[in-house]
Amino acid sequence: MSSTTSTRQEVENDHWHAMPVTDVVDSLGSDPEQGLSDHEVHQRRDQFGENRLTPQASRTALRRLLDQANNLFIYLLLAAAVVTFLIGERLDSSVILAVVVIIVLIGYIQEGRAERALDAVQGMLPTSAVVIRGGSRQETSAEQLVPGDVVIVNAGDRIPADLRLIRSRNLNIEEAALTGESVPVEKAPDPVDESNEVGDRASMAFSGTLATAGQGVGIVVSIGDRTQIGRISRMLTEIEQIQTPLARRLDIFTKWLSIVIISLAVVTFFVGVLVWGEDSGEMFLAAVSIAVAAIPEGLPAVMTVTLAIGVERMARRKAIIRRMAAVETLGSITIICSDKTGTLTRNEMTATVIRTPDLEISVEGVGYEPVGDFLIDETNCDIADYPAAHEMIRAGLLCNDATLGIEDGKWTPQGDPTEAALLVLGKKAELEREQVDNDYPRLDAIPFSSERRYMATLHRNQQGQHVVYAKGAPERLLEMCSSEQHGDDVRSLDRDLWRDRVTEIAGRGQRLLAIARKDVDADTNELRDEDVESDLVLLGMFGLIDPPRDEAIRSVEACLGAGIKVKMATGDHAATAKAIARDLGIANTDDVVIGRDVETMSDEELQQSALSVDVFARVSPEHKLRLVQAFQAGHAVTAMTGDGVNDAPALKRADVGIAMGMKGTEAAREASDMVLADDNFATIERAIAQGRSVYDNLQKAILFMLPTNAAQTAVIVTAVAFGAVLPVTPVQILWINMVTAVTLGITFAWERAEGDVMKRPPRRTDEPLLTPFMLWRIGFVGLLLLLGTRYLFGVEQGNDATTLEFARTVAVNALVMGQIFYLISVRFFTRPSYTWSGLTGSPAVLIAIAICVALQLLLTYAPFMQVLFGTQSLDASAWAGCIAVGFAIF
User: Fold this and answer.
1) Which residues 6+ apart lie within 8 Å of 634 measured at CB?
2) Please, which residues have CB within 8 angstroms of residue 86's CB and are 6 or more apart in sequence?
3) What's the CA angle centered on 499, arms 493 and 503, to 5 degrees?
4) Can you tell me whether residue 770 is helix, strand or coil?
5) How far apart are the first and last CA of the chain?
6) Of 533, 655, 536, nearest to 241 (Cα)?
7) Which residues pair with 163 in a beta bridge?
8) CB-CB neighbours of 196 under 10 Å
9) Is 23 a catalytic residue?
10) How far, in Å, are 80, 308, 321, 432, 738 from residue 95 at the CA level?
11) Got the DSSP string for 68-108?
């Protein structure tokens, strides 16, 4: 086998993190000191290509524009526009075309979010890198890196490719964008277990992540599309967004409506020609009238305005909608799959437990606000009465490089979140950092490193004695300690007991930090590793947690009460995720599925687990995407939250992708449907309530508009069926449709929620746009309008003193008056309208009625309108009849 073939096979493996450094170097044919030669670089670039993500093949702007019109409802509107143009009503034809243009432009503007999401992923990659080639250090374009290149990483650098670390010194890398881990990850070249998830591969540095501290040297193992971020980019290009529930329902509704309209028009034409012997030209005009009557031309405009008002209301509540249809989809949500850090939790580390060898002290308060009491067995205590705990807190202030201050009235830390939590703890104990530093001036320090797994500082106390304080991982400090502090006594260390304590506290979902001390000679002014790594006295351990948001707890409860399942999918450890889920009140916290379990499950097994389990830990991008697909396979309407580039594929696939606005990546925001301006789960709950209200309003608008369309259609069909004169003309029908839609129908956009929308279950995913109740009501109200209109028209036709134009004007106004009164009735689904609030509770309704009445008076009495629409002035008795029809409807 050639070395080139061998290299390719090795490059394509996914186990670099588990291989010893020597094996990695041998597999890639590289040299840690000399790097690759120029010849090897050129050869490998020809073999593997450039280190960049493959751009997707995007559609042209014209293609995307035309795709927006590929919709049956658009075809119906275009047909209506052509028909009205053919009958000479060019103004009305222009209005319908304007509606079509608006709908198409909205879709076009919002199209291409996937392309922008991919651009955002591309933007995470650095443009340059420092490499060792031919034994010399040089800067090169990141795109020119090849497998086997030796790359130098310093604090502040963005990682240019997937690297297997071969050396590191205090290297910490921020991987939140890729893994969801909220704090920088300690890196070291030691191999880790092959089964470790991406977030646990401490021997790797991944493309697009950021080095926050220290230095490192790594060898390139993957470039371009084969990197972890490249895999995510490929997933984004392959994911097809699914239709929203409203779009699916509208498609079905439009198909049936088209069938009914075409059937009625054809049947009417042939009945008139074949049965009554009418002129085919007149019957074509009648068929056209049916089409104009039946098509709800104003519905798209009403829907657009209703959704737009919902967008504006949500924006005021910190939910920024990027895709208008998401407003309605939110109201259909049955599962929320949320990340943990910053959404359900505060993303503020908090010390909640002080564990000394003798007792456990609980600490109240959350976040960086230094307010909270100390408790023993749920009873307040004065921490100063417990010297061992007091010294632990003081040591946490001294062995600390973070700072805490007030910015814009808010306590804000600078530095490591864990160290910031110790500063807050000190303030709760009324220890001031400046005073402690003055009493115990620092002489030297050993900074924290991933190899050491501890930090140590040397101080001089007020008596002139020198003391070392160390803090770090519990298992590491237990190795360094030989004794433990019991009050004023020092006793032999009970390691087994402490390991049990570590397990017990970690089981609560807390991170542990051990702290110890050592007295040294007064002439010791410099710290060495050997001075610290033995004979320490263990003072105790701190338990820290990123606490749940108080409002998130209330919102989870509200969602569960609304029939919405809340699930957590996080990159954090299982114990932490389980404990946070329990505190939040998430339903099922007994079972936790971890990422590697997701990998091994079949689609059917995952679907079953996804619907029954509520906590998913250590999940990767593929896992989150598979979870969303599993939820949807179970007919769940799913909202997925996320902030990292790793979340972008799942956000794009979800029915509603929700990105974080404060701490999220641009890739996540571009792939999402909604952005949380405050990164707060409670905002999702409020948005769902608004979404449910919007859907109610859309249904009310449809329930308001369709009876009139049904009545108008029935008026024409019955007239043709009995060989009678048309009570209304096509132009008058178009007037009724457009005027009532833009005045009366549009008022539903401002309707407030009816009752507590979060006290009822989500709508069934298979529920049609028109429920059986709505169909009955549309038919019943349409029948009343038909009977009232036909009766008044018949009365006026039988009156020798009136003309056909007069009778038709009565019919038009009867239809409009019926709609005005029906508008008040249809404002509520579950309570009566004959109340004071029902009659006067909406200023928009009152304004719309006033405008509609004014327009009808203009249609009836203005001479130019009489010429255009064939109307005549009405007397008081005619108006009384029209109003009587309205009362009958109410």
Assistant:
1) 607, 610, 611
2) 288
3) 155
4) coil
5) 87
6) 655
7) 205, 220
8) 18
9) no
10) 11, 20, 28, 71, 9
11) HT--HHHHHHHHHHHHHHHTT-HHHHHHHHHHHHHHHHHHH
Return the DSSP state at 552. H
Percent of the chain surpassing pLDDT 90:
39
- CB–CB of 152/128 below 8 Å? no
Question: Which of 101, 604, 655, 11 is closest to 325 using CA atoms?
Answer: 655
**pLDDT tens string 491-543:** 999 999 999 998 888 878 788 999 999 999 988 889 988 889 999 999 999 99
Per-residue pLDDT tens digits for 282-325: 787 777 777 777 777 667 767 777 877 888 888 888 888 877 77
**157, 162, 339, 655: which is the annotated catalytic residue?**
339
Query: How far apart, in whole angstroms, are the C-alpha atoms of residue 620 and residue 212?
Result: 22
113 pLDDT above the threshold of 50: no
Is the dihedral angle over the CA atoms 225, 227, 233, 236 positive or is it negative?
A: positive
E strands, 643-684, where?
656-660, 674-676
* Tokens at 729, concatenated: 């003309």
More confident residue, 672 or 113: 672
Nearest Cα neighbor of 195 from 41, 18, 376 is: 18
411 contacts 370 by C-beta, under 8 angstroms: yes
Helix axes 730-743, 843-861, angle to 10 degrees: 150
Bridge partners, 130 (sequence order)? 139, 152
Q: To which H or E segment does residue 695 belong?
A: helix 681-721
The pLDDT-based confidence of 750 (bands split at 50, 70, 90) is: confident
Dist. CA 440–CA 538, nearest whole Å: 19
DSSP 697: H
The whole-chain average pLDDT of the chain stands at: 84
Q: What angle do CA 622, 627, 632 make, to 5 degrees?
A: 130
Whether residue 597 contacts residue 176, with contact meaning beta carbons closer than 8 Å, is answered with no
Please, where are the H alpha helices in 317-349?
A: 325-330
**Length in residues, the chain:** 890
pLDDT tops 50 at residue 866: yes
| Dihedral pair phi/psi, residue 767, rounded to 5° | -70, 130
User: What are 776's two structure tokens?
Assistant: 């009955």
Cβ-contact 560, 585 below 8 angstroms = yes
The rounded distance, in Å, linking the Cα atoms of 632 and 655 is 9
| pLDDT 10s digits, 246-271 | 777 777 887 888 888 888 888 888 88
The SS3 of residue 165 is strand
Q: In this predicted structure, what is the pLDDT of residue 11?
A: 46
pLDDT digits (tens, 9 = 90+) for 561-600: 999 999 998 877 777 788 888 889 997 777 899 888 888 8
Amino acid identity at 132? I
Mean per-residue pLDDT, 475-487: 92
Residue 154 vs residues 220, 402, 452: alpha-carbon distances, Å: 16, 21, 19
Rg (CA), the chain: 36
773-810 per-position pLDDT tens digit = 888 988 999 999 999 999 999 999 888 878 999 999 99
Classify the C-alpha dihedral 20-23-24-30 as positive or negative: positive
Residue 253 contacts residue 703 (beta carbons within 8 Å): no
Continuous segment of H or E residues that includes residue 812: helix 804-825
For residue 505, the number of C-alpha atoms closer than 13 Å in the C-beta half-sphere is: 27
pLDDT in tens, 684-742: 999 999 888 888 888 888 888 888 888 888 888 888 888 888 898 877 887 887 788 77
E strands present in 223-334: 319-321
Element holding 422 (H helix, E strand): helix 417-428
